[in-house]
Amino acid sequence: MGLGREYDVAVVGGGLLGSSLAWGLGRLGQRVVVLDEGDIAKRASRANFALVWVQTKGLGLPEYTSWTLRASETWEQLAATLETETGLDVCFRRPGGFHLALGDREMELRRDVLARLHNQPGAADYRTELLDHAGVRKMMPEIGPEVAGGSYCPYDGHVNSLRVFRALHTAFGHQGVDYRPDHAVTAISGNNGAFHLTTRHGEIVAGKVVLAAGNANAMLAPMVGLSAPMEPNRGQIVVTERAAPFLHFPMTTLRQSDEGTVMIGDSKEDEIDDRAHHMPIDVMMANRAVRMFPKLAALNVVRAWSGIRVMTRDGFPIYDQSESHPGAFVVCCHSGVTLAPNHAFDIAPMIASGVLDEAVVGAFSARRFARPSGERAA
Amino acid sequence: MSAAPEIEHVDILVIGAGPAGLAAAASTASAGLTTLLVDENASPGGQIYRRITRSPFVDAAILGDDYWEGRPLVADFEASGAAFCGETQVWSLDATRRVGMSHKGRSRFVQAERVIIATGAQERPFPIPGWTLPGVMSVGAAQTVLKASALVPDGRLVIAGQGPLIWLYAAQHLRAGGTIEAILDTTPRANYLAALPLLPQFIGSRYALKGARLMREVARKTRIVRHVDALRAEGEDRVSAIRYRVGKKESRIETDILLLHQGVIPHVNLAMAAGVAHRWDERQACFAPVLDPFGQSAIDGIAIAGDGAGIGGAEAAAERGRLAAWAAIKALRPQVEDKVPPVEEILKALAGAEKGRAFLDRLFLPRKQFRVPVEDDTIVCRCEEVTAGAIRQAIKIGAAGPNQLKAYLRCGMGPCQGRLCGLTVTELIAAERAISQDETGYYRLRMPVKPITLGELAAIEPDARAVSAVVRE
Amino acid sequence: MFRRIASANAEMVMIEVDGVPVTARRGESVAAALLASGLSIARETPVGGVPRTPYCMMGVCFDCLVTIDGIGSRQGCLVSVEDGMRVSIQKGRRALA
Fold this sequence. Notes:
- The complex is a heterotrimer.
- Chain A is an alpha+beta fold.
- Helix content of chain A is 30%, strand content 24%.
- In chain A, the strands form four sheets. In chain A, strands 1, 2, 8, 9, 10, 11, 16 and 17 form an eight-stranded mixed sheet that branches. A four-stranded antiparallel sheet of chain A has the order 13-14-12-15.
- The longest helix of chain A has 24 residues, at 63-86.
- Chain A is globular, with a radius of gyration of 21 Å.
- In chain B, the strands form six sheets. In chain B, strands 1, 2, 3, 4, 5, 6 and 20 form a seven-stranded mixed sheet that branches. A five-stranded parallel sheet of chain B has the order 8-16-10-11-12. In chain B, strands 13-14-15 form a three-stranded antiparallel sheet, with no helix packed on it.
- Chain C contains one helix and eight strands.
- The radius of gyration of chain C is 13 Å and the shape is globular.
- The interface between A and B is large, with 59 and 50 residues.
């Protein structure tokens, strides 16, 4: 402890994002501490939809299309590595995914979004196929008559995100990553290889600090000369009892988990209280789900919940390093599940080396928010 | 979908038709407030007076006088003009007191000025190895089928646990012509001593004489093993034996049915999901809602009466129902306040009914090892089949509380929504981490508190806010 | 698992359990009728496929889940029997019809 510090890196936030980074750092032999909130936290890792999703991501920031595609391509490796280390199968499956349109108007909107996305210069070259009712029906015979069609992308998949969470935390034990719940960070000071992080259980000192605290990054980032403009919103999810497997493909608003439960949900409200829950939204989501798959009507809803989405102001990730506080990094993104392999295999080594690779993640710097507005309208 | 959905309005919605709910609804309806009483069961009575209006029993003596005491409560309710809706499950209640309820596969919302939650108690989880085997049931379950259907266990019967219900049920079962192989009494020796200072107050209560009489009645015909400190139900596809220990001596009894019971606890799901704060009650070793003396929660217009507010028994429940009703009448119809019984009378009756409760609480406080399973193979979460061992492991990797535990193990995520594991999980985490139950907390509960089908949910009319939050155009 | 004792108002109804005719008392719950049926009534859980029978009989434990008239996972202890009701015991995860 010559430098008065115990850890090479302190990761602030122990959700999927922070945990993927910490695990990646642990694999490189770094001494890592993960400082997490307590049991009641606005934890997107516990409220997410568990999609590994590619289609329609990146409208407004073409670099995001290839970044997402890269994650989809390396998920299998992450899943396999986690299983080897922990014996836990995180059930990553990539059968391709659908976005279904109820009625012609929704179909038109989808067509338009996809056209704009793929016409962007610099967007990754992959296909998302538009299918009419008959086309979708060929792959999913259970759809209802109101489904006008949908888009299908072979790179889409899903995973058991709660098990990913558990696997990462289980792996910490093998790696010697020090996971500390109930250690919400309230202040950060110091610089130059010795950051001091204040928690209710005392101060933690680490050579580097990575902010992976979701929407709380907005509050923490300025403490180390960074910025993370966030615009969180609230989503609700409804989940059914376990049923025998019948939905092979994940969809943007609907999927059947490996355990058999069916998750439904794609609501969005400008609210940040995750305790509030507007029941009629569940009604609306159930209504759409049953119109997409009439058979679902017979399943019992066993839970519903609200979660706060981690969302930057333009919806794209932020990967940044501090100029005034070398060794301080900020990582923010909505897609903690999809991007987990990138965080573990790409971002973690950059942090270990002390420098983010501009060629890979330069487009995701928060500097983009300082540009005149409108230049990168999402 | 554009028209605003029509919502039925009532002054008072009472949820649960046991003694608290019956008394509350009778009081508010008598004061001229439109009152709707709903219950999961087809007829009023709750668990204690289950099916009292349509009892299958010819011989009233089998169930005993305490059961039939429910009759005037029901009669008052029926005369009050309050509406009753049975076989109705309340699955949603929010801070605006909009209540989602399901009846025979159809759901509707009711808007209430005041809601009185009278969902009562449930039996405390009794997680021993083998408690999920077919043929293992709670004593309350056996008593329910006795009261409602005149059924008695077929074959050899063993009862294990502690608390007044065991003796009451055993007596009823014997009167009904049944036999009992043994009662394995788990009341700890130390409890008798600890409860002793509270004895004088108990002696004067109504429970004392009745309790002693019941225990004598049962003991005359049944083998009773006292101070049992470990239990394990054995069997392959169903229970075949119970292994138990008294001190260092281990024994085994073959049985066809094993009934378990170690007291009752407030049924917290609806109140917690509605956002009512709960605190750990050390005396009763359970979570109980934070309420004012009239049963009002911090959420405007939501009150809790009866055992759901803390275990007090049937008589106290009825008085607490009247108290909550009094507060509702005072708030909504102050002009008729003088026409209802004065609050002092209710408070006095309540104090009388609560007499002796402290002694019972202390005497029947279950042993730690029956609340926090010692053996790792004990199933804690029956729905997701999560064992105590798995939970201990998850605590080691960082589960600081019940909600993180859910994320790791799906513990509490099945259809019962934590009703049969929540308390055990809290106590287990508290014990492992050496923190208090309050600091550990409880599952964060959400609506729907009872499962409804997607089809039923989908058939309700959504509001404009829901449409704009979901359909993206 | 249970046997009936003499009772008043014993109006009987007929239900069907996995195709087998069973007599039940009007006004009692489906779960109670199953307990008194003499049939093997254990469902198999959708998690580990292990057998379970009703535990609490008061709407709390969800171990009495059955399919009633084609609607799955209903709490048998909260539904009253009706003449001609068709009940089936659930084995494992429900298949959607």
